[in-house]
Design brief:
about 110 residues; globular; 5 strands; HIT family, subunit A; five-stranded antiparallel sheet; binds guanosine-5'-monophosphate; about 25% helix; binds zinc ion; alpha+beta
Length: about 110
């Protein structure tokens, strides 16, 4: 997707602080961090949102969580704790329509939920 900022980051065409990359997924620091650690973990292929997930994407979604776990350890927030968020469409607060998992940590989250 040429006009998708996250596809461009995955392809190396737009700058980002990449913290992980493999054949299936890429992780990079959020441009406007909402916590001391704020990493976005995205599938390399363009998936608009959770609404567009196919059955064949199950392993890929599991992979995003495994990457989150590894990065949490790497960032030193595994024990103190962190939050994983996937926003979907307007009510979920999604602003970039390439599915992504937010990894947030390094301070106590202000809102229990919502
Ligand atoms: P959403 O609101 O869709 O769940 O999250 C989108 C996230 O992407 C936001 O936290 C926003 O700060 C981040 N973001 C938007 N544009 C860019 C960009 O060009 N580069 C990076 N690294 N993050 C971005
Ligand atoms: Zn994309």
């Amino acid at each position: 997707m040429k006009d998708c900022i996250f596809c461009r980051i995955v392809a190396g065409e737009s700058p980002a602080r990449i913290v992980f990359h493999d054949e299936q997924a890429t992780a990079f620091c959020d441009l406007n961090p909402a916590a001391p650690t704020h990493v976005l973990i995205v599938p390399n292929k363009h998936i608009v949102s959770v609404n567009q997930l196919a059955d064949e994407d199950e392993a890929l979604m599991g992979h995003l969580f495994t990457i989150a776990k590894r990065l949490a350890t790497q960032e030193g927030i595994a024990e103190s704790g962190y939050r994983l968020i996937v926003n979907t469409n307007a009510h979920g607060g999604q602003t970039i329509f390439h599915l992504h998992l937010h990894l947030l940590g390094g301070s106590r989250m202000k809102h229990p939920m919502g």
